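Q: How do we represent a protein-ligand complex in a form that can be generated token by token?
A: Start from the inputs.
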Amino acid sequence: MEKLTNRSVAVDRSPMTFGERIYLPAIAKGLTITLGHIFKKKATVNYPEQKRPFSPVFRGLHILNRDEEGRERCTACGLCALACPAEAITMEAAERKPGEEHLYREEKYAAKYEINMLRCIFCGYCEEACPKDAVYLTETVMPSNYTRKSFIYKKEDLLIPHPKTQEAK
Ligand code: SF4
Ligand code: SF4
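Then emit the structure tokens for the protein with iron/sulfur cluster bound:
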């Protein structure tokens, strides 16, 4: 039969020697390798007590930003969802009503805004696409969880706290 590659190696089927049959040399060889690693620098860290420094360009969990008056910046234009290669962002737009000017900066706002973090690849395209400086990726590591539902981040989870509420604390 014709070979598919030239990388195939013939298996050595010769009978085992006495040394191979008693396994002791192989065990000693294995232990020597293990002992050699005891004195080497560890490749792992004791997470979560110890954490490795992140790269300056690390992109973590998203936030939805407010302006200096605490109004939501997002106008539900949909550009972030359009730019998202993972189709992780969904939203529903709503019209601002008279008297809601202190809540929403523009005439249109996101009544619903969700990011599916299981889909997200933290590429940062949503942040780059946003014309209103409304969505940002922070340095917070995505926390682990047990249910799929807990990875769907809603607007309430993403919105930063209102600056005035924070001042009062
Ligand atoms: S970081 Fe990338 S994958 Fe995640 S929501 Fe934004 S655009 Fe989509
Ligand atoms: S976050 Fe920015 S890009 Fe996305 S819908 Fe809101 S304003 Fe538009």
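The two ends are 78 Å apart (CA to CA). The first strand starts at residue 62 and ends at 64.
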